[in-house]
Design brief:
The complex is a heterotrimer. Chain A has four helices and seven strands, in the order αββββαβββαα. By secondary structure, chain A is α+β, with helices and mostly antiparallel strands. Chain A has one domain: PRC-barrel domain (SH3 type barrels, Roll). In chain A, strand 6 and strand 7 form a beta hairpin. Chain B has a single domain, classed as Amino acid/polyamine transporter I, CATH 1.20.1740. Helices cover 80% and strands 0% of the residues of chain B. Chain B is built from 16 helices and no strands. The longest helix of chain B has 47 residues. Chain B is globular. The termini of chain B are far apart. Chain C is an all-alpha fold. Chain C has one domain. In chain C, 79% of the residues lie in helices and 0% in strands. Chain C has five helices and no strands. Chain C starts with a helix and ends with a helix. The chains are: A alpha+beta, B mainly alpha, C mainly alpha. The interface between B and C is medium-sized, with 33 and 34 residues.
Chain lengths: 114, 408, 119
Amino acid sequence: MSAIDLGLGILDHQVVDSDGHHCGKVDDLELEGVREGKPRVAAILTGPPAWRGRGRLGRLAATLTGGHVVRVAWEEVAEVSADVELRRTAGELGLARGEERARRIVERIPGASL
Amino acid sequence: MKGVFAIALGILAAIGGFVDIGDIVFNTAAGATFGYELLWAVVIGVGGIITYAEMCGRVAAVSERAVFDAVRERLGFQVGLVALVAAQLVNLLTIAAEVGGVALVLELLSGLPYRALLVLALLALVLVLWVMPFGWIERVFGYAGLALLVFAVAAIKLHPDWAQVARGFVPKAETDNLAVYGYYVVGLIGAAMVPYEVYFYSSGAVEERWRPKDLGINRANALVGYTLGGVLSFALMISAGALLLPQGISPEHLGSVALVAEVPLGQIGLILALVGMLFAISGAAIDSVFAGAYNLAQFFGWEWGKYRHNAGAPRFTIMWAVMLVLGFLVVMTGVDPILVTEISVVFSVVALPLTYLPILLVANDRAYMGRYGNGVVGNVFGVFYLAVLLLIALAAIPLLIASNMGQG
Amino acid sequence: MGQNVPVRRALLLAALVLLAGCGQSTDPKKQADDLGSVAAEGALLAHDAADGSSTGPFTRVHSGVLREDVVELEPKLKQRALSRLADDIASALDELPDRPDAAARRLDDAADRAEELAQ
């Protein structure tokens, strides 16, 4: 399977870090080498602004949601199976922001670790 | 032996957990209006949920994906987003109906004012969800919901004409009011196949790490659990048909449903009916709240899980709390929960094809399913039900209006 | 203007759906049926309450809820016989929790009257 097929096959799949934590979906792909006729996936893009490349509804959703895009270079991908497994943790790659912000809120409530 | 015991317990929990306020309202009203003539519609609904729950369970066990993971991967971002928004709106209405229902039953048990009980219901549900381990929740609410079997006893004690009951399993539409009849067919099938059930079932299967070796359990759970749950629905319809129809009583309230157990069985019948309704409806509130949180987390790729501790899946946790509060706010406006129930079931019927089509597609996809994809039988049932769902989805709102919400 | 069309259609649909929920009609036969339904249901409750087959809270709450049904129907009743019947049913439901025996008799009677009026 060529690199580009692999890339397109992972669109909208789950991204999982090296600890097995969910860290978003493959919202869009950054391609390179298209003009030279040798396209390959340069990076995975995840985060609401990445939806802009996904059609009209995608642009609408991106506008309504805001947020940040995180660019994960293709070299960070350890394995592609059902999920896209990364070599490092979400924190190291900047993918943990949403979950961490939520965690800070939830942790304040007693019983959060039950 | 231990395995069989575990399966049996799971099935018991499933039976008690199958009936929710939509089933209670539609089965009782259908019995009071058409007697036993709509039992066949319940059979169709139960067949549908068995077919699709088994499919979802199989998809979860083989591909290790829950419904909305598969929806987004298979249908893409835009279509998946439309499905998500539709699903969440329906889930929200369902949550509102169930929370309102809990408060209504509490009012019938305690005599305390409804609005205060709504707040109590919200707080109690939040507490249970926050503190109680999920395994306990499933068992407590599932088993206590079995008190609804009192309606099976009531049905027998009311001495229906069993020959006529048997005839009710054969569809025939000899009625002056076809619109009302059609409305109830739609409502009964919709109440049995309400979407949050499959979202919840499939997410649970992924959390419990079902694998191909568990496919037998999956099939048994779906088949036995939902069939026996269907028996509860029959019991509601038959007892309503035996007691309410001859007296010309049209049940408009949950108290009317409880009366159906009180008249033949006295005070103990009443209390079992109310307790059963309380736990069945609360259990459904919990399941639908989780279903809403599951859908969002699965679509956007967040951490999720009812077995995780709250801080382990923080966005998931926040979302179930938000959905519960939003549902509460809807019924806090004072709208009648029975009205919300009917609307939620009818609107969920409209969204059902969008819910189930992706499941059917994924269950047939060799890349996901390997050799465990749908066989001929699976597809015959799957396609048959999709056709049924398309039909009732198109008919739902016209029938709602034409039948004046079942009032005629 | 063109952009408002889908919004107006949605509002119309919502209005239709809400109206569909306002089940009460102005047809006298239907009104008699509705009153008969409340009376019969009230009678069942009253008989049970008189037998001790019910519970205090349930009897109070459910008779109250049925009474509200009658009260909601009353403004739409145009025939005097129906209005009188509605009054009788409402007052019987009022006394149900305290004097279920008497209420049961009155509600049985009201159910019969409703059936006659529905012919």
